[in-house]
Amino acid sequence: MFSLIITAFLLGLVPANARVISNQQALVGPSCSPPLTSVPDLTSSSPPPFRPSASTSSALPSPSDNNALLLALQLASSEADRLAILLPDPADPANITHTFINNTGTSGTISLASVDVFPALVGTNVAMAIGFLNPCSLNTPHSHPRGNEFFTVVQGRLQAGLILEGNPVTAGPLAQVNKTLTPYEGMLFPQGMVHFQFNPECEPAVFAAAFDNNDPGRIQIARTFFSVRPDSVIKSSVGETITPKEIAALRGHIPSSVVTLIAECAARCGI
Asked: Is 44 helix (H, G, I), strand (E, B) or coil?
C-alpha cells in the first residue's frame, strides 16, 4: 500500500499535503494513532488526465506509458475520472484502441489484449485475442484459469478439441468434444477446461477469442506437467511407465511457444 501511494505521489494523483498513515497507525487500539477513518480524502480532486507520450500512439506503447496509465486508471475514484484519464482529448482515441500484431513466424502467433498490455480494460470484465494460425499449426492444449472463452473462426478452417472433466477415480482417457469450425462458427471453452485448436489446411487461418475476464491467464498443459519436481512425482503420476532420462528428454523438447507445427501435416503441405 505504501509503495502504491508513493507511486501515486510521483504521478501527481495524490495531493502534496496528504498524510501517509502506516499500517500500524491504522490499527484501532488504546495506544494507536487515530483509526483508518482519519486517512485524508485522496479523491477530493480529479486525477490529472493521462496524456500519452509520442510512443503511446504507435501500435506498441512503451512499458512505461502502459504502467503509468494502468496505475492512473486503478487509482481513479469514479467512472467519470477514468474516462477523463482515457480520453483527455476526445478527438484522440489512442488510449481506447489496440492493434493486434501478427508476428508472422513459422507456426503463427496469438495476440492477446489483456489488462496488462491494454490498460483501458481496467474496470471491465473483458479481454480479447486474435490468433493467426499458419498452415498445420497447433494452438497447444491449454486452459484459462480465470476466464471463459468464446472462440470464433474468422478465416480458414480449424479443428477444435475440448477435454471434459471426469470422475477422478475412474481410469482411462477423459471424454473429448471435437468440432471442425468454419468461418463465423464459434465454440465455448469453459473456464479452467483444457482445449486446443489445429489448422489442418495448407492455408492460414484466423480466429477471434473473447474472454469474460480482463486477465484470463493461460496454463500450458504439457509444460506445466513436466515442470513438476521431483521426477518421481511425474513417474508415479503416469504409472511408473517413464524413466527420469525420458522425463529429461521430454522437458527439452516441449515448445516454449504456444503455437507449434504438426509434423505430418507440415510434410503434406511441403512446409
From this structure: coil
How would residue 106 be classed by pLDDT, with cut points 50, 70 and 90?
A: confident
- Please indicate, yes or no, whether the overall pTM of this predicted structure exceeds 0.85: no
* Distance between CA atoms of residues 216 and 238, nearest Å: 29
Best CA proximity match to 52, nearest among 82, 76, 88, 83:
88
The residues, any chain, with a CB within 8 Å of residue 134's CB and separated by 6 or more, are 104, 105, 106, 107, 108, 199, 204
Distance CA 210, CA 118 (A): 14
Specify which residues 115 forms β-bridges with: none
Angle between helices 63-75 and 79-86 in degrees, nearest 10: 160
The three cell numbers locating residue 95: 488510449
CA distance 208 to 151: 6
* % helix, strand, coil for the chain, step of 5: 25, 20, 50
Q: Which residues, at least 6 apart from 172, have a Cβ–Cβ distance to it below 8 Å?
A: none
The backbone region for 123, taken as left when phi is positive above 0, alpha when psi lies in -120 to 50, beta otherwise, is left
SS3 at position 132: strand
